[in-house]
Amino acid sequence: MPSRQDDYYAAGLVSWVTQCSFDPPMVLVAVQASSDLNETIAKSRVFALNILGKADLPMVSPFAKESVIEPGRINGYAFEEGPKTGVPVFRSVPAFLECRVKEVIHSEADHVLILGEVVHAEDINPEAEPLVEWETIYHYGG
Asked: Where is the Flavin reductase like domain (predicted)?
């Protein structure tokens, strides 16, 4: 999940995402409160959700760490600017959503909840099988 504020980029791995409205289309995402990604989203008010497929498993670990930003690349993966928000999107993944922040819920928890309105979506590879968390090395419980 990347964000961008002017020429500053941040990205991170998120596990807790849910659709929460049909009209307008919205998603709710949990982001680590102390993360650079959270700070960047708070300033820019935009983010992208890049939906990973099974073939994208190698992308998981690099995005669970501090991001390495190079021109046109995040953690070694080429990105483009999203057509609606300018936020980084990866065309190598099955789908992506561009979102504008509508609300942020803070509490004593270690994650904030970010409500984002989906302003653009692309289904790049509808045949791809989705990657689910339990197929990775990262597990939050259960």
From this structure: 10-140
